[in-house]
């Protein structure tokens, strides 16, 4: 495949697709943007004019019939399990936005299906691929921080807010700290499907400690991560800066210089790097970092947090 372009298709033309994927995919010289699918053909045709896809279709079968190498699933989370399964069973490698399913049973089935079919399934935990997050990871090398504090806050709640948004922070905590053996979580709500906040204390297998804070009662949108250990600290303010400090020095990296000051959210939040990683894995037949097996561990940890807090779990 290295000598020919990667034939791709995209499912979904909503906010995430239009802001973080459709502007990015045409940038790559080794990509042939073959098909774009939406349930309403008019929506697919409108987005087609924006991104230059060759075909606009309204069904998965029509998309598969375009002889693709891979597809991007960018639809609402309730659609992911069915669409991912269909694509894997029809011989395609798949990139899907998180979560890969809304239940652990469906997530386990999809992970097993990816292994059984031998096709790649990458889940879009794009924060891992954000430049500031990768810079903090590099600061610790092969080691782990001893304390991890991750916050993802918003000024208003939404349906199943912890599942929908805090999953990014849960994945980052695994990325930095490894696997978790104990979870103790708290929440507040008047409706358990629209929680006001969730906090969780995590004890990692390696003895590190983590604190997750997911508040839907804050003054503004905020994502921050603090890492402390080995007399080294990293402070991430997503998506714009990371400060690494020790007893002698402090270095701050800001994303303003990216693209000569024109860096966009898809670059700073890691979408561009994540997409490129997936395409490289398709081309070179390599396993994605956030493949289905690894992503399932994040889903399972999130389920434990939800259960510990007394929120609806991933049943």
From TrEMBL:
SUPFAM superfamilies tied to this protein: Glyceraldehyde-3-phosphate dehydrogenase-like, C-terminal domain (SSF55347), NAD(P)-binding Rossmann-fold domains (SSF51735)
Residues annotated as domain Gfo/Idh/MocA-like oxidoreductase C-terminal: 163-309
Domain of life: Bacteria
Signal peptide as annotated in the record: none
Domain Gfo/Idh/MocA-like oxidoreductase N-terminal: 6-125
GO molecular function, one term: nucleotide binding
InterPro entries: Gfo/Idh/MocA-like_OxRdtase_C, Gfo/Idh/MocA-like_OxRdtase_N, Gfo/Idh/MocA_oxidoreduct, NAD(P)-bd_dom_sf
Identification of the protein by name: Oxidoreductase, NAD-binding domain protein
Lineage: Bacteria, Pseudomonadati, Pseudomonadota, Gammaproteobacteria, Aeromonadales
């Amino acid at each position: 495949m290295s000598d020919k372009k990667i034939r791709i298709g995209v499912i979904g033309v909503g906010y995430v697709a239009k802001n973080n994927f459709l502007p990015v995919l045409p940038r790559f010289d080794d990509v042939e943007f073959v098909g774009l699918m939406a349930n309403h053909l008019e929506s697919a045709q409108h987005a087609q004019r924006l991104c230059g896809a060759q075909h606009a279709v309204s069904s998965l079968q029509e998309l598969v019939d375009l002889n693709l190498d891979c597809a991007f699933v960018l639809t609402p989370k309730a659609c992911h399990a069915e669409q991912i399964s269909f694509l894997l069973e029809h011989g395609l490698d798949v990139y899907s936005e998180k979560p890969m399913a809304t239940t652990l049973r469906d997530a386990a089935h999809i992970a097993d299906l990816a292994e059984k079919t031998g096709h790649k399934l990458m889940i879009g935990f794009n924060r891992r691929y954000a430049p500031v997050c990768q810079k903090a990871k590099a600061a610790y090398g092969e080691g782990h921080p001893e304390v991890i504090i991750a916050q993802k806050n918003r000024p208003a709640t939404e349906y199943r807010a912890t599942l929908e948004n805090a999953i990014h922070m849960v994945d980052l905590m695994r990325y930095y700290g490894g696997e978790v053996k104990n979870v103790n979580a708290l929440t507040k709500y008047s409706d358990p499907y629209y929680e006001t906040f969730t906090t969780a204390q995590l004890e990692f297998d390696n003895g590190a400690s983590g604190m997750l804070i997911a508040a839907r009662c804050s003054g503004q949108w905020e994502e921050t991560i603090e890492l402390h250990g080995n007399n080294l600290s990293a402070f991430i303010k997503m998506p714009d800066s990371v400060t690494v400090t020790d007893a002698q020095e402090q270095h701050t990296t800001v994303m303003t210089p990216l693209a000569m000051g024109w860096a966009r959210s898809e670059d700073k939040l890691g979408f561009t790097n994540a997409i490129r990683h997936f395409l490289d894995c398709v081309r070179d037949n390599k396993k994605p970092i956030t493949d289905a097996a690894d992503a399932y561990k994040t889903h399972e940890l999130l389920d434990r947090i939800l259960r510990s807090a007394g929120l609806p779990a991933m049943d």
